[in-house]
Amino acid sequence: MALRTIREIGDEVLTKTAKEVEGMTPRTKKLIADMLDTMYEAEGVGLAAPQVGILKRIVTIDVGDGPIVLINPVIQETGGEQTGPEGCLSVPGKQGIVTRPNEVTVKALDENMEEQVITGTELLARAICHECDHLDGKLYVELVEGELTDVTDEEE
Ligand code: NI
């Protein structure tokens, strides 16, 4: 198990556009394994490679149904709307209300560079949108309706 340092808001790497992954390498495999370890250790539901300082289009997500790895994800379809609290491991201790699609279909490669299409609703849809935004250098704080608020222990 190897943990990577999670970059926090204010770090320039979080504002940059990540590059497509062109082929699986031992280095990229290790990055994905480390991202999963780092995400679980931080008790997050998602992590994007730029959050650990690597500008590659890789996302890990687990909303409680097991790990999902999305490489070069492209959102293909969205539907509906959900409005609710959202947080980010790069903005520790804070949350804000964000409106996202309630259903999202994403096409991506998996760890074997095989194409996969995943449709998620509710929290998974929110996580897919949030993590894909990281790959384009966008943080959820730009989308917050109202103010960022402190997360209390109870709400975590
Ligand atoms: Ni985030």
Keywords for this entry:
156 residues, 8 strands, 2 helices, 19% helix, 5-stranded antiparallel β-sheet, alpha+beta, binds nickel (II) ion, 33% strand, single chain, 3-stranded antiparallel β-sheet
Walk me through what this model shows.
The protein is of the alpha+beta class and 156 residues long. Helix content is 19%, strand content 33%. The longest helix has 16 residues, at 26-41. It is globular. 32% of the residues are buried. The protein binds nickel (II) ion. Nickel (II) ion binds at residues 88-90, 130, 134. Nickel (II) ion (NI) is lined by residues 88-90, 130, 134.
- Write down the oligomeric state: single chain
How many extended strands?
A: 8
Report the total helices: 2
- Sketch the major β-sheet: 5 strands, antiparallel
| Main sheet: strand order | 1-2-3-6-7
C-alpha Rg (nearest Å): 15 Å
Shape: globular
How much β-strand is present in the residues?
25-35%
Give unreliable regions as ranges. Answer: none
Distance between the ends: 24 Å
H and E order: HEEEEEEEHE
What would you call the structural class? alpha+beta
Map the helices and strands.
Layout: H1 26-41, E1 46-48, E2 58-61, E3 68-79, E4 82-86, E5 94-100, E6 103-109, E7 115-121, H2 122-135, E8 145-150
Antiparallel strand pairs: 1-2, 2-3, 3-6, 4-5, 5-8, 6-7
The structure holds nickel (II) ion.
Short summary of the structure?
The chain has 156 residues and is of the alpha+beta class. The chain has two helices and eight strands, in the order H-E-E-E-E-E-E-E-H-E.
